[in-house]
Write a structure and sequence with these properties.
The chain is α+β, with helices and mostly antiparallel strands and 302 residues long. The chain has helices at 104-108, 114-117, 134-141, 143-163, 183-202, 230-241, 251-257, and strands at residues 8-12, 18-22, 29-32, 39-40, 52-57, 60-65, 73-75, 78-79, 82-85, 91-94, 97-102, 121-132, 167-171, 176-180, 210-223, 226-228, 246-250, 265-271, 280-285, 300-301. The longest helix has 21 residues, at 143-163. The chain starts with 7 loop residues before the first strand and ends with a strand.
Length: 302
């Protein structure tokens, strides 16, 4: 699997599943509907067989359409004539397909907040948490002890998110929605959250807490401080699908992280999630220090 530290394009297929196309190497690459295109969009009949080119130039990437397409290439809804340098956050449209350009090097220059990387629309990595079995747990503890436990629980999670570049989007009663400009940071945060909750449980100072986490990355819409769209729904549904002590993430997150960090992923295949018409490529992320380098009992390690 490619290590997506280079710039990349993120785009949906006909079913709405998002794909990552890394921009690597020193050769030009083509976008089109035909079999010979490097980035193929066979489902979009409004895309030409060879629609446009992606050309590397002095560490940057240019989008080029010198009249080779039938209906033009657009960047941020502006028709390009010839070539245009792509910038982090640009949205390229060919036919009916939109592809967002993301430059991972922007993150390394110090972009750690969502606001640095997206505006009204853009790519964000989302982390959802949920306190497994919360209703029964709170019933056993009672109101006062239950509220105290929740405060302590959320304090642990919020501290991990703040330390790793996350921003709390909102509280969901028994869980949190956290946004990141980096998929790698979201993965690091998920591991830190599980490890810190496990350490708290090991102290035996109270009821053991079971934490579920779901992760997804994608192009979202924003209104104020909130985010909407299919990527948000996928992240939440992965959290709902997870068991206590489990981290589930989408194939998009897996591709964005690549081999960075040496993390261990188990391929669970395509899962059917509530409210989503199409199955979602899903991976489990190992977080226990004793299992990070071990084989998983089920699935395929990648």
């Amino acid at each position: 699997m490619a290590d997506v530290t280079a710039p990349f394009l993120l785009y949906p297929d006909r079913a709405g599943n998002e794909h990552v196309f890394p921009l690597e190497g020193e050769r030009a690459m083509t976008i089109g509907r035909g079999d010979d295109a490097d980035l193929r969009l066979p489902w979009d009949r409004s895309v030409s067989l060879v629609h446009s080119e992606l050309v590397p130039a002095a560490g940057q990437w240019l989008i080029v359409d010198d009249g080779i397409s039938r209906n033009g290439t657009f960047v941020n809804d502006q028709l390009i004539g010839g070539r245009r340098r792509l910038r982090h956050g640009d949205v390229v449209r060919v036919g009916a397909t939109s592809l967002s350009f993301n430059d991972a090097r922007v993150e390394r220059r110090g972009s750690t907040t969502i606001a640095d990387s997206i505006s009204d629309t853009g790519v964000v990595s989302l982390l959802f948490t949920d306190l497994a079995g919360s209703a029964a747990l709170l019933d056993r503890l009672g109101d006062d002890a239950g509220e105290r436990m929740l405060r302590e629980h959320f304090a642990v999670l919020r501290k991990a998110a703040a330390e790793l570049g996350g921003r709390e989007v909102k509280s969901l009663g028994d869980g949190l929605m956290i946004g990141f400009s980096s998929a790698l940071a979201a993965v690091r945060c998920a591991i830190a959250m599980q490890q810190r909750i496990a350490a708290r449980n090991a102290q035996g100072s109270g009821e053991a807490i079971g934490l579920r986490i779901g992760l997804n990355s994608g192009e979202v819409s924003s209104t104020g401080d909130d985010y909407f769209g299919t990527p948000v729904i996928v992240a939440k549904r992965l959290c709902d699908e997870a068991r206590a002590g489990q981290i589930l993430l989408s194939g998009v997150v897996r591709a964005l992280v690549g081999s960075r960090g040496g993390y261990r992923f188990t391929d669970l295949g395509a899962l059917t999630l509530k409210g989503l018409a199409d199955p979602v490529s899903t991976f489990e992320l190992a977080w226990r220090s004793s299992t990070l380098q071990e084989s998983s009992p089920r699935g395929q390690m990648t």
